[in-house]
Each structure stands twice: as structure tokens, then as C-alpha cells.
């Protein structure tokens, strides 16, 4: 006999065998607990691609009626009506399989609420009328609850399987009828689903799960709280089926695993060791580098910190404040109003670029500082005519007017622009040349350009890091610093942190944040070498309402959840490094960033 003790032996687990513990969870790992209580039983979970669906049954005169409580049993709600007929119909529609174009197994878990022998007798008699189900290799019927004694299992058709019970012992023949073991979480712990399970209790559960997996069986834990933290905890412990009463929520959670988990696939970048030269001094500021992480909130920063194995250049900065981002006409700003506030010192309406809330044109930082001999450069790893960079040279009542915004550059004193969106400048190339600008659409030219005034508008900028953009942002910043010399203002935008937030794609966010941080390191290094350069790092807003549910800093892995595919209203951090960085502490309006920059560079 297979003794209970086998499942407590210190057998080789999957991890000790050297097999990667990573697994892809999908809705096929979802179990619809008490499925019959949904307004549309079976089909709600089925069309969400659940791999396991549960029905509680009571035997009444050879019929199986579905209900959680005996008092609610009614003749119309039979196993046949709610489950077997709909299942037969979809199998026929799919050409013989439970799921269309798939040989994945659908588990139908039938929980006996009445005495095992008469209940299973009724089940067999009913299933014999449905050979499309009983003889289908893509359907597994599993009996749970008040099962017949294991010694009787051999009397029943081979298509009947049984839910294993941790407290019982089974012969090899009996064990062969068990595809899965189910257990109440309260047999191990009183954990309420918040925080983490006490280590000793978690180790107890994990040891049992690993032992059952070693025996080639699956696991379902029931009785646990029904929330994201519990689902994730079970996934981390490698439970095969995650039970839920929240079919839609769990389906969405499992469907989007690839976009919500970052696996640490990008190698961490080296961190510049900050020297804090003149960091707290109130000396002269000749240069300001404003780095805007579009859509970057605290969680985006921490996801990058996790992805880079617990280190960011940004987090070496010690002078930190918070910026309030609301616009003139909205509690939640867009990039146009957020960028305009920092570029011009004025709150404005969403979608407005370089104009106030009445539509009046506003001078931006480059315009104001040019008479004082301050040169300017604008960089974006997105379109240079998009809202944030556009606010530093353009004027429009709608951010979508990108051709008109590009034309505004003809009257701007900005010396260098690097980014995407070349098509918007095609009609102005001759005029730009007349004004002394060089022009390139090839990023490979970055190190060979000799002109002091130039535009580099290249498709490279529009690529994400996941699609091979490479060191575009850092190299662009370093080249711009070298070209402008002394006394300059540079705005460099990590545009695609925002794109990742809108896409609700955590790997996108993490890799863009890590790339942005490399540029931050280059700026900090220059600030230390120069001694008169102030580096400011902030955001125009946060995007996605990102939260982090789980992670492993040593492996660079993170698991997140987005509450929105748009911007949020939360304050964003402001980090400062170099002389006068102390002035950026505290909480203030985003327009104050403009005021501080102008005050320092006009000296």
C-alpha cells in the first residue's frame, strides 16, 4: 500500500532536481469553486477558459441536483441541465474536444453531498447517456466530497476519477485513479490571506505540495481567502489549481501573467558611485539637466530598482521632494499640461501645449534663458513633437497638432533636439538648414556630428527597450552635454515608461525605468565632474496606478497590477543632485520646478 508517510518523506523536489520552478499560469489553472452559484453556471467559467469547474450534487431518486445547501435543492437545477448538456453542446461544436482547437483537459469536479454509493451509482447511470463526455480524453470527471470507500473504486468505470484525501492511504491501483489531491488550507494554517503565511506553516504546506508533485499528482487548496495575494501565494507554492468564486477577476489575473510579471531577463546596469560634489552647496549653477520620466511614480521607480537587482543611480540622491501634478481643468493631468507646467511655470488645461488656460502663448525655459547665454537641448525616446518635449518649444491648443508644433521649432532658440517624429519636420528641413541646423535621421551619426546646432530625428527613438532601442537615451544625453559645452539647459525624457503604463505591461515599465536610470547615472557623473551642474529627476504624472504584488530583488523579478490604463492623480517624486539640490525638498506645485530652474540659471 502507498502509505501516508510517503507524502511526508524528504523526497527529491522539483527544485532539488535542478528543474526550473518557473511555470506559466493561465486560466487553465483556475478552478471555479461553487460554480453553480453564478448567474450562468458552467458557461461563465468555461468561456473564461477555466481548467476546472465544480458542482455540488445531492442524489434524489436517481437524479443529481446541484446546490450548496440541501434546503435549496430544486428539480430544475440538475447536473444534466446545468453542466452535462451545455458541455455536450460545446464539445460537439468544437469537433470533439472540450476546448476548441485544443487537447487541454477540462476537469469537472463533482462534490458529493449525499452518501457515496447511491450518488456515484446515479452519476454513472447519467454519464452513460453522455459518451461525448464520459469517453472524451479531454474531459476528466473527478468525484470529491462523500466518495465511496477507496476499496470500491475498481467497481466503477475507468472514466470516474477521485479527489485524493491527504488523511487516507491508497493502494497503487487506487492511487492510479487519483489525478489530484485537495486539502483545506486550515489543515495547515489560520492565515487570513493578508501578508504572508508564518514560515513554519508555509514550509509544512510546501513540503506536502512538493511531495504530492513528486508522486505525479496535482494540488488544489481550498478554504483560502479569495484575493490576489492568496492567488499569488498559491502560485508561488506551485498549486496546480487556484480556486475562486471571483471567476472574472481570477481569469483576468491569470490571462495577463506575461504582461504583469517581469522575469529579470535584462542584465542589470552598472551603478555610478555618487561623489556628491557640491551636492548641498549653494554655489553657482551653470547647467541644469532636467530628466523627466514620463509616467514615473514611486512604484515604477521601485520596479526598476527590483529589475536592476536592488540598485538604481536615482536612489543615491538624498534631496527629494514631491510635486503636485493636477492641471487647470482636471484633477488628473495629462502630459501636455504636466509638461507645460514645468516648461513655462503655468498650470494649463489638459491637451494644451505651451499656452495658458486661456490659450495665450507662454515662453518656455529655453526662450527665457537664451538671452542669458544659456543653450538648450531637448531629448526624448519618443516623438519629439509629443506632449512633454513639445511643451519646451511648441504652442498649441491641442497636443495632436504635431505638424504645427514642429513648425513652432523654427522660432525656438533650442540648439539640439533628439527623438522620433521626423515626418512632422519634413516640410521645414530647408528652413532649418537656413537657420544653421544640421539634420540626421540615423542614430549611428550621433558620435560624428560636428555642428553646434542640429536635430537627430530617428526611428530608433521610437523603439522600446524590449524591441532593441539600446543606449539611445544615455548616448544622446552625453553627446548633447559635450556639444553644448558650458552654461546649458537640457531636458531628457524617458517617454516610454508612460507607454508601458498605458499598455499595463510591467516588463515594458521595468526595462524603460532601468534605461532611464542609466541616463540618470550619466547626468550624475557629469555633475560631479563639473561641480556646477544641477540634475533634477521627476515625472509629469504617474501612469497605470501600478502596484507591486510580489518580487525577488536578488533575481530582478517583479509581479505587478495596474488599476488603470491611464494617468493617476498621485503626487510624483522630485530628486535633485548637485548645487542647490536642497531647494527641491518639500512638497510643491509642479510649476515650482520651472521657477527654481529659472532663478538658478538667470544668476
Describe this structure in words.
This protein has 603 residues and is α/β, with parallel strands linked by helices. The chain folds into two domains: 27-254, Phosphatidylinositol (PI) phosphodiesterase (TIM Barrel), CATH 3.20.20; 287-569 and 577-601, Alkaline Phosphatase, subunit A (3-Layer(aba) Sandwich). It contains 19 helices and 24 strands. The strands form four sheets. A ten-stranded mixed sheet has the order 15-16-14-13-17-11-18-23-12-24, sandwiched between helices. Helix 10 (298-307) crosses helix 18, helix 11 (335-344) packs parallel to helix 19 (591-601) and helix 17 packs antiparallel against helix 18 (506-530). The termini are far apart. The model is unreliable at 1-21 (pLDDT under 50). GO terms for molecular function: alkaline phosphatase activity; metal ion binding; phosphoric diester hydrolase activity.
SSE blueprint:
Layout: E1 30-32, H1 43-46, E2 52-60, E3 63-66, H2 79-93, E4 106-112, H3 116-127, H4 131-134, E5 139-145, E6 160-165, H5 172-175, E7 180-184, H6 199-214, E8 218-222, H7 228-236, E9 241-244, H8 247-255, H9 257-260, E10 261-262, E11 287-293, H10 298-307, E12 319-324, H11 335-344, H12 365-369, E13 375-383, H13 387-390, H14 402-408, E14 416-420, H15 429-434, E15 438-440, E16 454-457, H16 472-484, E17 488-494, H17 496-502, H18 506-530, E18 533-538, E19 542-543, E20 546-552, E21 557-562, E22 567-568, E23 572-577, E24 586-589, H19 591-601
Parallel strand pairs: 1-2, 1-9, 2-4, 4-5, 5-6, 6-7, 7-8, 8-9, 11-17, 11-18, 12-24, 13-14, 13-17, 14-16, 15-16
Antiparallel strand pairs: 2-3, 10-21, 12-23, 18-23, 19-22, 20-21
Helix pairs in contact: 10-18, 11-19, 16-18, 17-18
Amino acid at each position: 500500500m502507498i502509505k501516508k508517510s510517503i507524502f511526508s518523506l524528504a523526497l527529491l523536489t522539483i527544485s532539488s532536481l535542478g528543474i526550473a520552478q518557473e511555470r506559466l499560469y493561465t486560466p487553465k489553472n483556475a478552478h471555479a469553486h461553487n460554480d453553480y452559484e453564478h448567474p450562468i453556471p458552467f458557461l461563465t467559467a468555461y468561456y473564461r477558459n477555466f481548467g476546472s469547474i465544480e458542482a455540488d450534487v445531492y442524489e434524489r431518486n436517481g437524479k443529481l441536483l446541484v446546490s450548496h445547501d440541501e434546503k435549496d435543492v430544486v428539480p430544475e437545477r440538475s447536473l444534466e441541465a446545468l453542466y452535462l448538456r451545455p458541455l455536450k453542446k460545446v464539445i460537439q461544436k468544437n469537433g470533439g474536444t472540450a476546448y476548441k482547437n485544443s487537447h487541454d483537459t477540462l476537469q469537472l469536479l463533482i462534490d458529493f453531498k449525499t452518501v457515496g454509493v447511491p450518488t456515484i451509482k446515479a452519476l454513472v447511470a447519467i454519464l452513460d447517456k453522455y459518451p461525448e463526455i464520459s469517453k472524451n480524453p479531454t474531459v476528466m470527471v473527478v468525484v470529491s466530497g462523500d466518495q465511496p470507500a477507496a476499496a470500491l473504486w475498481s467497481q466503477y468505470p475507468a472514466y470516474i476519477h477521485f479527489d485524493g484525501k491527504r488523511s487516507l492511504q491508497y493502494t497503487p491501483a487506487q492511487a492510479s485513479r487519483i489525478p489530484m489531491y485537495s486539502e483545506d488550507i486550515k489543515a495547515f494554517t489560520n492565515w487570513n490571506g493578508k501578508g504572508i503565511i508564518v514560515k513554519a506553516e508555509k514550509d509544512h504546506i510546501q513540503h506536502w505540495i512538493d511531495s504530492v508533485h513528486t508522486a505525479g499528482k496535482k494540488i488544489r487548496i481550498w478554504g483560502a481567502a479569495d484575493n490576489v495575494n492568496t492567488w499569488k501565494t498559491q502560485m508561488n507554492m506551485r498549486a496546480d489549481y487556484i480556486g475562486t468564486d471571483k471567476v472574472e477577476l481570477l481569469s483576468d489575473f491569470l490571462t495577463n501573467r506575461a504582461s504583469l510579471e517581469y522575469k529579470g531577463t535584462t542584465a542589470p546596469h552598472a551603478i555610478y558611485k555618487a561623489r556628491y560634489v557640491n551636492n548641498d552647496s549653494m554655489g553657482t549653477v551653470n547647467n541644469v539637466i532636467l530628466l523627466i520620466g514620463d509616467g514615473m511614480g514611486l512604484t515604477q521607480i521601485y520596479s526598476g530598482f527590483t529589475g536592476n537587482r536592488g540598485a538604481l543611480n536615482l536612489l543615491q540622491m538624498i534631496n527629494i521632494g514631491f510635486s503636485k501634478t493636477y492641471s487647470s481643468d482636471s484633477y488628473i493631468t495629462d502630459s501636455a499640461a504636466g509638461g507645460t507646467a514645468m516648461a513655462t511655470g503655468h498650470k494649463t488645461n489638459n491637451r494644451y501645449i505651451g499656452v495658458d488656460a486661456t490659450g495665450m502663448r507662454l515662453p518656455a525655459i529655453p526662450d527665457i534663458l537664451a538671452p542669458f547665454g544659456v543653450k538648450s537641448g531637448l531629448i526624448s525616446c519618443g516623438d519629439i513633437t509629443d506632449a512633454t518635449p513639445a511643451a519646451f518649444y511648441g504652442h498649441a491648443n491641442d497636443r495632436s497638432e504635431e505638424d504645427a508644433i514642429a513648425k513652432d521649432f523654427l522660432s525656438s532658440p533650442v540648439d539640439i533636439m533628439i527623438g522620433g517624429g521626423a515626418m512632422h519636420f519634413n516640410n521645414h528641413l530647408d528652413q532649418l538648414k537656413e537657420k544653421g541646423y544640421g539634420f540626421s535621421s540615423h542614430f549611428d551619426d550621433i558620435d560624428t556630428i560636428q555642428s553646434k546646432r542640429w536635430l537627430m530625428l530617428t526611428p530608433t527613438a521610437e523603439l522600446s527597450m524590449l524591441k532593441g532601442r539600446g543606449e539611445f537615451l544615455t548616448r544622446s544625453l552625453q553627446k548633447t552635454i559635450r556639444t553644448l559645452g558650458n552654461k546649458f539647459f537640457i531636458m531628457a525624457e524617458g517617454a516610454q515608461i508612460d507607454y508601458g503604463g498605458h499598455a499595463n505591461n510591467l516588463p515594458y515599465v521595468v526595462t524603460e525605468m532601468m534605461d532611464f536610470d542609466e541616463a540618470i547615472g550619466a547626468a550624475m557623473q557629469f555633475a560631479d565632474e563639473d561641480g556646477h551642474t544641477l540634475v533634477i529627476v521627476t515625472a509629469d504624472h504617474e501612469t497605470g496606478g501600478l502596484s507591486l504584488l510580489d518580487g525577488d530583488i536578488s533575481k530582478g523579478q517583479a509581479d505587478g497590477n495596474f488599476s488603470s490604463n491611464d494617468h493617476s492623480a498621485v503626487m510624483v517624486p522630485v530628486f535633485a543632485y548637485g548645487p542647490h539640490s536642497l531647494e527641491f525638498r518639500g512638497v510643491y506645485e509642479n510649476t515650482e520646478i520651472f521657477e527654481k530652474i529659472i532663478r538658478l540659471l538667470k544668476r
